[in-house]
Amino acid sequence: MSEPEREVLTYELFGIAVREVAQQVVDSGYEPDMVLSIARGGLGLGMGLGYALDVKNLSAVNVEFYTGVGQTLDVPMMLPPTPAAVDLTGLKVLIADDVADSGKTLEVVHEFCADHVAEARTAVIYEKPWTVINAEYVWRRTEKWIDFPWSSMPPLVNRHGGIAH
């Protein structure tokens, strides 16, 4: 059985993706006051967008799908520390993530922001066709498994028991 075809993002392509997504934001006329990255995958895009769009107010949020024994819950949860609502009030926020796959992570962060901010828009490198939320700014759309440059090789350490082999 053959290996399924993959979408491979190199660091070089990632640099191009950041600039092209930033250009989409500029072309749309949206001027965010803050870039809010979803950790971990959205941190690189968020940093790149911050520089390209001259936004120095960068923040990050951690989101995880909580798991019970042998199961994943349907609802992702934002983990503390989360940006204080008072810090977001009246801002135009650009939410950054690497991929909108199910879209549930982006949806949770977008809903969190929507209650407080003037406007929230989303930017992703990749978007899958089955996502529950469509980002305003997308570099590429794909159905393939994506190999990101930062996660295509295993970690150097195993935090759950010594050095990785």
UniProtKB/TrEMBL annotation:
Keywords: Glycosyltransferase, Transferase. InterPro entries: PRTase-like (IPR029057), PRTase_dom (IPR000836). Residues 9-150 form the Phosphoribosyltransferase domain. GO terms for molecular function: glycosyltransferase activity. Gene3D superfamilies: 3.40.50.2020. CDD domains: PRTases_typeI. It comes from the Bacteria. PANTHER family: HYPOXANTHINE PHOSPHORIBOSYLTRANSFERASE (PTHR43363), HYPOXANTHINE-GUANINE PHOSPHORIBOSYLTRANSFERASE (PTHR43363:SF1). This is Phosphoribosyltransferase.
